Amino acid sequence: MSAPAPKKRVAILISGRGSNMVSLIEAARAPDYPAEIVLVLSNRPDAAGLDRARAAGIPARTIDHKAFSDRARFDAALQAELDEAGIELIVLAGFMRILTDAFVEAWGGRMINIHPSLLPLFKGTHTHERALDAGVRLHGCTVHYVVPELDAGPIVAQAAVPVLPGDDADTLSARVIVQEHRLYPAALALIAGGGAVLEGSRVRFTARARDAGAAILSL
């Protein structure tokens, strides 16, 4: 019997409470999960997620963006931490900094994000309010690869929720975040385990992933 493939070394980047980070850390505790969360980084020293990561036994550090004169210097400090930890995949989880094109391109195909809308709808911020204003009947979240253009990278997986009569931004957000916490760990497992492969501007699923149902596509 062949030895199992080594787990991918993952860093999670956060700016706030890290609720998606927690769902990823919990999923990665499973012995057969193909990724290992080895580092959490935040650009904000007061990010509540730092303490949550440390409580889970994950090294968590701050690289305060305010200490750097420009984005390139901040990104260089970020890169140094990632290099030291031997990171193979970056997961953005509520990381509220725009990275330089050079950094994004250097991590092309190795950095993912979760966005609270069904992309390509409602790129950017205030997605729940905009979904309600547009009168859509379905809303949700998207896991995608990160590219220099904001919220425009190849889509890995999506989960949809209904927009209900009487919804406001808070109730809709609460329904979406439940799906985010399911979708992100599943999508990371697909990528880290080789079930989802980036080919150009599209994501291809292996036969094994399709045979398993690739259920994350329709949670």
TrEMBL record:
N(1)-(5-phospho-beta-D-ribosyl)glycinamide binds at residues 18-20. Residues 8-188 form the Formyl transferase N-terminal domain. Pathway: Purine metabolism; IMP biosynthesis via de novo pathway; N(2)-formyl-N(1)-(5-phospho-D-ribosyl)glycinamide from N(1)-(5-phospho-D-ribosyl)glycinamide (10-formyl THF route): step 1/1. The active site is at residue 115. CDD domains: FMT_core_GART (cd08645). Its EC number is 2.1.2.2. (6R)-10-formyltetrahydrofolate binds at residues 71, 96-99, 113. GO terms for biological process: 'de novo' IMP biosynthetic process. GO terms for molecular function: phosphoribosylglycinamide formyltransferase activity. It catalyses: N(1)-(5-phospho-beta-D-ribosyl)glycinamide + (6R)-10-formyltetrahydrofolate = N(2)-formyl-N(1)-(5-phospho-beta-D-ribosyl)glycinamide + (6S)-5,6,7,8-tetrahydrofolate + H(+). GO terms for cellular component: cytosol. Keywords: Purine biosynthesis, Transferase. The keyword Transferase applies. InterPro entries: Formyl_transf_N, Formyl_transf_N_sf, GART. Pfam families: Formyl_trans_N. The keyword Manganese does not apply. The record marks 151 as: Raises pKa of active site His. Belongs to the GART family. Catalyzes the transfer of a formyl group from 10-formyltetrahydrofolate to 5-phospho-ribosyl-glycinamide (GAR), producing 5-phospho-ribosyl-N-formylglycinamide (FGAR) and tetrahydrofolate. This is Phosphoribosylglycinamide formyltransferase. It comes from Methylorubrum extorquens DSM 13060.
